[in-house]
Design goal:
Helix 1 crosses helix 5 and helix 2 runs parallel beside helix 4. This protein has seven helices and 13 strands. A hairpin with a 5-residue loop joins strand 10 and strand 11. It binds manganese (II) ion. The site of manganese (II) ion (MN) has 7 residues, from strand 5 and helix 4.
Length: 250
C-alpha cells in the first residue's frame, strides 16, 4: 500500500532506545508519526488521564511527546491531535518481555490496544529480555511483521502481541503463532524504609513462567522464535454465563 500512515507509540517514553530502533526500522515503509509518553509508564496498562489536561510537544528527535500515559498518547493522536487517521498503530519496542499475564499490565500492549479499540490494526512489540541486547535484530524482525501486515491485511483489524527473542538475526529461527502462557503469581512486595524511617513498598517482580509449554509465547521465545499472539479484549468468561444465570435464578 502506498503512503501507509503509521502511528508509533510505546510505554518506555519518547527517548527510549527501543522506540528509536523501531522507527528507524520502519521509517521507509510509510509516513511515520510518533506520539509517545514523556516519561516511562511501564505497567500503566490502559489508564487514561482524566483529572488534568494533556500537552503534546515535539522533541528534538522529531517525536511528539505527551505528559500522559501510553493510552493517552494513542487516544489523543487518533481522536483529536492528528489531522489524519493512521492505517496502523505500532507500539514498542519495549525494554523487556510482555508475555502471558504481562499483557494485562503492559503499557506497550495498551498503546496498541487503544488503536485496536479505535478500529485500527495494531501491533505491540517487546524485546523478550530487558537491556536492549540485539535490539537491531529485533527491530528488523518487527519490520518484517509490519511489512507482512501491510502487504496482506488480516481480517478484522486485529491486535497482535509480538515478543522478539534477544538473539542475533541469524539465530532467530522464524515466526510462530502462539497463545499467551501464564506466569506463577507475582513475587511478594518488597518492604523498605524511606530516609525518614517510614515503611515504603516496592511492587515485586512478575512471577516466572508457569504455563510455558509448546504453543505458548514463552515457549516460542525460549526456542528462538518471534512469538506472534493475536489478542482479544472481551473479558467475558463465556463458559460461566449460564452458571451465573442459574446462580442468580436460584
Ligand atoms: Mn516498558
Amino acid at each position: 500500500m502506498l503512503s501507509m500512515k503509521i502511528l508509533v507509540s510505546n510505554d518506555d517514553g519518547y527517548l527510549a532506545p527501543g522506540l528509536a530502533a523501531l522507527v528507524d526500522a520502519i521509517r521507509d515503509l510509510g509516513e511515520v508519526t510518533v506520539v509517545a509518553p514523556e516519561q516511562n509508564h511501564s505497567g500503566a496498562s490502559n489508564s487514561l488521564t482524566l483529572t488534568r489536561p494533556l500537552s503534546v510537544r515535539k522533541g528534538y528527535n522529531g517525536f511528539w511527546f505527551v505528559n500522559g500515559t501510553p493510552t493517552d498518547c494513542v487516544h489523543l493522536a487518533v481522536t483529536g491531535f492528528l489531522d489524519f487517521r493512521p492505517d496502523i498503530v505500532v507500539s514498542g519496542i519495549n525494554d523487556g518481555a510482555n508475555m502471558g499475564d504481562d499483557t494485562i499490565y503492559s503499557g506497550t500492549v495498551a498503546a496498541a490496544m487503544e488503536g485496536y479499540l479505535l478500529g485500527i490494526p495494531a501491533i505491540a512489540f517487546s524485546l523478550a529480555r530487558k537491556g536492549y541486547d540485539h535490539l537491531d535484530a529485533a527491530a528488523q524482525c518487527a519490520r518484517e511483521v509490519v511489512m507482512r501486515s501491510m502487504a496482506s491485511a488480516l481480517e478484522g483489524a486485529p491486535l497482535l502481541n509480538v515478543n522478539l527473542p534477544a538473539l542475533p538475526r541469524a539465530d532467530i529461527k522464524g515466526f510462530a503463532a502462539t497463545r499467551l502462557g501464564r506466569r506463577h503469581k507475582a513475587e511478594p512486595a518488597i518492604k523498605a524504609a524511606n530516609p525518614h524511617g517510614d515503611a515504603v513498598y516496592w511492587v515485586g517482580p512478575a512471577g516466572l513462567a508457569a504455563d510455558d509449554g509448546p504453543g505458548t509465547d514463552f515457549h516460542a521465545v525460549a526456542s528462538g522464535y518471534v512469538s506472534v499472539t493475536p489478542l482479544k479484549v472481551d473479558l467475558t468468561h463465556f463458559e460461566h454465563v449460564g452458571r451465573i444465570r442459574a446462580w442468580l435464578g436460584a
